[in-house]
Write a structure and sequence with these properties.
- This protein has 296 residues and is α/β, with parallel strands linked by helices.
- It folds into 2 domains: 54 residues, no CATH class; 232 residues, Vaccinia Virus protein VP39 (Rossmann fold, 3-Layer(aba) Sandwich).
- It is 27% helix and 28% strand.
- It contains 8 helices and 14 strands.
- The strands form 4 sheets. It has a 7-stranded mixed sheet with strand order 7-6-5-11-12-14-13, with helices on both faces. Strands 8-10-9 form a 3-stranded mixed sheet.
- Strand 1 and strand 2 form a beta hairpin.
- The radius of gyration is 20 Å and the shape is globular.
- The chain starts with a helix and ends in a 14-residue tail after the last strand.
Length: 296
């Protein structure tokens, strides 16, 4: 006999809805006009709804599905590695931290955001959470004060746009709106951020618009303390001086991290080429060792 789930899926195409079954109890559901992701049970997601961009984009479903799978992947990794402190570098308005909480993460969040407008929104979100710290600065290789380009929405950067970036995004034409931001090294703030944790097991998330490798370098030797990390890596450079994906991944692997997942963030509509990936990495040796059966 067909289950209620199966019967519901069978009925939806008659309403103009597309169905892609992923496995028992899970399916991707899409309808014309755009996509949003909604969790409908512990192992099922519904993707449908509307989006503000009404232009035809054959990759929209791919992007939304990839984003949802990436978030689930991170949540599972944090649980598996018993992470108790997530460093959220490039926090913007707190979207990543809120998503962590929605997926069940209850450990400490340490967010870094230097842009005043985004920082104000971030602080309002974090102040309702007793274990969410906010640092009003950026992170980099050196302690300094640098000029950051603004007016690029979530793509504000310490780096100038590349020729490819300017061609892809009209917003990059504005290079006159800037602000001075404080840069600190990750290894200089680590002790304060981890204060009070008896057995710190930190995870590093970076989304700094081409500056991730500089943040990574600022951890120095203390990068060895991180059990996992997440970085936006780019096969197509949007910013001048940013590393190619292969260069960034090589540096992360040299530091002992191994890839556990790669998820497209943005891609060209015309060619399908991926512009940026979310790269999730971890130290396999850092998985907690279970107690022998005789001691459980």
């Amino acid at each position: 006999m067909a289950t209620m789930f199966k019967r519901a899926l069978a009925a939806l195409p008659r309403l103009g809805v597309q169905i892609l079954e992923l496995g028992p109890g899970a399916a991707v559901v899409s309808r014309r006009g755009g996509y949003t992701a909604t969790k409908v049970s512990t192992d099922a997601w519904m993707i449908g709804g509307k989006r503000s961009d009404t232009s035809a984009d054959g990759w929209g479903l791919h992007k939304t599905t990839s984003s949802s799978l990436c978030a689930r992947h991170v949540a599972d990794l944090l649980a598996n590695y018993e992470v108790n402190c997530v460093f959220d570098v490039g926090a913007n308005k707190g979207q990543y931290g809120k998503q962590l909480r929605e997926f069940g993460y209850r450990g400490r969040i340490v967010s870094f955001e230097p842009v005043p407008e985004a920082l104000d929104r971030l602080r309002k979100v974090a102040q309702r959470d007793p274990d969410w710290l906010v640092y009003p600065c950026a992170l980099g290789r050196d302690e300094s004060v640098e000029s950051m380009f603004l007016g690029w929405k979530t793509m504000n950067s310490l780096l100038e746009p590349s020729a490819y970036g300017q061609k892809r995004y009209k917003r990059f034409a504005n290079t006159t709106q800037t602000t001075q931001v404080q840069l600190r090294r990750l290894d200089e703030v680590l002790d304060h951020a981890l204060e009070g944790l008896a057995n710190p097991r930190p995870y590093l998330k970076m989304d700094t618009q081409g500056f991730d490798m500089e943040v990574f370098a600022g951890a120095g030797r203390r990068i060895d303390e991180f059990v996992g990390m997440q970085s936006e890596v780019a096969p197509l450079r949007l910013y001048e001086g940013s590393p190619h994906m292969t260069e960034a991944i090589a540096a992360y692997e040299d530091a002992g991290f191994e890839i556990t997942g790669m998820y497209p963030v943005t891609r060209e509509q015309s060619t399908g080429r991926v512009v940026e990936f979310d790269c999730i990495l971890a130290r396999a040796a850092s998985v907690p060792t279970p107690l022998p059966a005789s001691r459980v």
